[in-house]
Amino acid sequence: MNFDLPEEHSEVAELTTRILEDHVNIENLREIEAAGDWFDRALWEKFVSSGIIGVTLNEDVGGSGLDILALVCILRSQGQYVAPIPLLPNLVSAMTVDKFGSKEHRESLLPEVINGSKLLTFASQEFLNDQFMEPHTEFKDGVITGKKLVVEYANHSDSALVTVTTDEGPAVCIVDLKDPSIAMSSSDSTRGEPLWEVSFTETPAEKLAGIESVLWLFQVSLVGLCATQLGVTETALKMTASYTSEREQFGRPLATFQAVTQRLADQFINVGGIRLTTFSAAWRLSADLDALEDTLIAKWWASERATEIAHASQHCHGGMGVSKDYPLHRYTLWNKHITTSLGAGTQTLRSLGVLLASEQ
After folding, report:
1. Which residues of the chain have pLDDT under 50?
2. Cβ atoms of 198 and 161 closer than 8 Å
3. Are 159 and 168 in contact (CB under 8 A)?
4. What is residue 103's DSSP assignment?
């Protein structure tokens, strides 16, 4: 079997990596972190001007017409450089509008997303509700009432996709985040990113689509998180392999000690598992196949096994791993953030068990 990416996907991955490699460095990341905004606007402009923002959108709105595998390539590269830009919320939201939106929605939003004049995000998580497909936020008579948590880049976004419950079942609505009926407050995530609590009080909204859009948004969001985690863990492991090959103890490189070698070999397998399950789920989604089981399996790997990778990489680095002058700590913080996003390992296993039981 040939697991190589098609040429156009490889080109997207190479372009994304080249932009990130040319721009991102420790000094740049420190500057963005000190500003507290967690938004590298100069890097974002490079992504916009390169056309990457429109790669996964259809050609009739100005995109390139590529699929979810292209999204995985882009987010994997972002994870490799831990770049603080809103790729995941913006691209996933835009792809959802592209797939389920009306002609008016697509033509009014997506060209401006591609040219960088508009930014989208999605609001799906709720307090004490880990059931993505059963939102408590209500949409009735054209308005939304409820509260969403951990919304990324809500302060910078123009519109948000909001998962809601309606008389016909769960749905996705589009909301103008500048509406005065919306209240926002922020707190910092594990990786230092501001995450927003967004309260809707009879906020005007438009329904995008029903339950099929909620399920699709859930699966693509999970795959996007897994792809980012793949990049994070790949770089963390490479960094650890390099460090243990150079750092000496008792006159020998750490990598020559059997315990170190075996532990890092286990993490090599774990990274391979994240890579395999992520691309498998992305391929099934791209082919319009049933992919919920695959996405949950991928998220479990990107949570449980990613945690093992973080622990091993920190342990093998010793005190150097937590130094702010050394880049590894950022990868560990990103790892932890992604691990718990949209359900950590135990919750994901519980969801997978319910799914498998329902199929019997």
Report:
1. none
2. no
3. no
4. H
